[in-house]
């Protein structure tokens, strides 16, 4: 006798060590939606002054760093993530299809946010420019003109981050390809990867390896990828919302296919003052 039931889908495990393990993630409730229309975030990372003085007043003050005129505010514009599922109607109840599309939305959310943070697809469309708040922006400071060894690239990013910052813990952004070559250069603290210097590491499945101003990602067999360093990254996530709520909305009566849609708002950003890029070659 032929089996006519439906086997449930296998449970999928999110990839570890992605952006959400290295960022400060805020999940907003349905009553906290004021941020969705965009907001300005204050930063204490860029604008500061530090001097050394002689307590007795005999020696002129020595400036450690003076960046008081740097940017204090970052304009942030959230975007929406939409998941869509097409499925024949027999075998799945409305409850099953609702649960399925919400699972798909939750699973794709980290990768969608990582993709936008690296490539700036939404940001470029919204601003019409290549200099928005995303990793592969032309606003990034390129450290070297030639590809480096992976460990050298990591060291250069960390040193430039240290020179730029007021001493805060930053984030190193790398592709899975580059992460595979770092090996013992990284430590693990719970779900978070750290460099030996203590900066967090984000290994995003949405990171594609493209460099500043590049329109395309490297080919799958490419051995040269870009790495980035930024200040602390902040992620805001809204609640899941079903766009499709019942079969009357979802079913195409001609094809008997149900289309279910769910969405959520999100954004990822950093302070903006420290943004470095270096190309590495995994064969060196």
Give your account of this protein's structure.
With 284 residues, this protein is of the alpha+beta class. The protein has a domain at 140-235 and 270-281: hypothetical protein PF0899 fold, CATH 3.30.2320. It has helices spanning 19-22, 94-119, 121-127, 150-164, 176-182, 247-250, and strands at 24-27, 39-42, 49-52, 62-66, 73-76, 79-88, 141-142, 171-174, 186-189, 192-195, 200-203, 224-230, 233-237, 241-242, 251-252, 257-270, 275-281. A seven-stranded mixed beta sheet has the order 7-17-12-8-11-10-9. Strands 1, 6, 13, 14, 15 and 16 form a six-stranded mixed beta sheet that branches. Strands 2-5 form a two-stranded antiparallel sheet. The chain is globular and about 90 Å long. 32% of the residues are buried. The model has no long low-confidence stretch (mean pLDDT 87).
Distance between the termini: 59 Å
CATH-defined fold name of the domain at 140-235 and 270-281: hypothetical protein PF0899 fold
If classified by CATH, what would the architecture of the domain at 140-235 and 270-281 be? 2-Layer Sandwich
Return the structural class: alpha+beta
State mean pLDDT (0 to 100 scale): 87
Shape: globular
Helix content: 10-25%
Count of helix runs: 6
Rg computed from alpha carbons, rounded to a whole number of angstroms: 23 Å
Q: What is the strand arrangement across the widest sheet?
A: 7-17-12-8-11-10-9
In N-to-C order, the SSE pattern is HEEEEEEHHEHEHEEEEEEHEEE
Main sheet specs: 7 strands, mixed
Q: Which ranges are low-confidence, i.e. pLDDT below 50, for 5 or more consecutive residues?
A: none
Give me the count of strands. Answer: 17
CATH class category label of the domain at 140-235 and 270-281 = Alpha Beta
- Residue share in β-strands: 25-35%
């Amino acid at each position: 006798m032929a089996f006519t039931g439906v086997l449930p889908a296998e449970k999928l495990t999110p990839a570890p060590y992605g952006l959400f393990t290295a960022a400060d993630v805020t999940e907003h409730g349905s009553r906290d939606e004021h941020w969705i229309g965009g907001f300005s975030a204050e930063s204490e990372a860029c604008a500061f002054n530090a001097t050394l003085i002689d307590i007795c007043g005999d020696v002129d003050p020595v400036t450690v760093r003076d960046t008081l005129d740097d940017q204090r505010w970052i304009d942030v514009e959230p975007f929406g993530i939409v998941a869509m599922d097409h499925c024949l109607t027999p075998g799945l109840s409305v409850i099953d299809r609702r649960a399925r599309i919400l699972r798909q939305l939750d699973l794709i959310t980290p990768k969608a946010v990582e993709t936008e943070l690296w490539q700036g697809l939404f940001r470029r469309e919204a601003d019409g420019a290549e200099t928005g708040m995303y990793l592969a922006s032309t606003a990034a400071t390129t450290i070297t003109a030639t590809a480096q060894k992976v460990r050298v690239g990591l060291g250069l990013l960390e040193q430039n981050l240290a020179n730029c910052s007021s001493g805060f813990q930053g984030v190193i952004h790398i592709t899975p390809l580059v992460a595979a070559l770092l090996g013992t250069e990284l430590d693990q603290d719970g779900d978070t990867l750290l460099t030996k210097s203590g900066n967090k590491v984000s290994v995003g499945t949405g990171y594609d390896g493209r460099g500043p101003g590049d329109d395309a990602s490297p080919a799958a067999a490419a051995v040269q990828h870009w790495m980035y360093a930024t200040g602390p990254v902040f992620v805001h996530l809204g609640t899941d919302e079903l766009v499709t709520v019942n079969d009357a909305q979802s079913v195409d009566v001609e094809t008997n296919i149900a289309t279910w849609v769910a969405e959520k708002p999100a954004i990822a950003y950093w302070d903006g003052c420290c943004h470095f890029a270096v190309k590495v070659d995994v064969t060196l």
